[in-house]
Amino acid sequence: MILRQITIALVLTFMASASWADLNLARKSGCLACHSVDKKIVGPGWKDVAARYKGQADAKALLIEKVKKGGKGNWTQVTGGVPMPPYSPRLSDADIEKLVDFVLSL
Ligand code: HEC
Which residues contact 82 (CB under 8 A, 6 or more apart)? Predict the structure, then answer.
């Protein structure tokens, strides 16, 4: 019984720290100047992004391209046409993939 509780506590800690690490990467990379998880700042809230692309098979590749190259047009009604800045090569491909995985997991 106690072992089970310890296991659950460990799993929860691990899950929490995984998303904390992703959020920290987002903060370090400057994303949080324009995004938050659940509301629009300059760019769309990331939960809204996840909801829009839910179930779309090519979403990950598409969003990786967008974060690398920047661009606008997908969220004009939310942003008034402000573009998303390009992040490659400022951020490594691995970090960009991590951030996109995080956004899509919300
Ligand atoms: C200067 C403000 C700004 C910063 C900084 C910024 N974004 Fe954005 N982001 C935007 C805007 C504006 C949009 C909406 C673009 C559009 O209309 O297509 C956007 C859109 C997005 C989208 C959805 C793209 C789509 O086509 O649906 C993702 C994912 C995203 N940003 C991730 C990130 C990540 C990850 C970072 C940090 C590495 C970041 N953003 C930094 C402003 C910003």
Answer: 42, 43, 72
Here the CATH number for the domain that contains residue 28 is 1.10.760.10
Nearest-CA residue for atom 12 of ligand 1: 43
Residue nearest to atom 38 of ligand 1 (CA): 31
pTM: 0.89
Which of 18-27, 30-39, 45-54, 77-86 comes out lowest in average pLDDT?
A: 18-27
Question: Does residue 50's CB lie within 6 angstroms of at least one atom of ligand 1?
Answer: no
Backbone dihedral region for residue 86 (phi beyond 0: left; psi -120 to 50: alpha; all else: beta): beta
Domains contained in the chain, number: 1
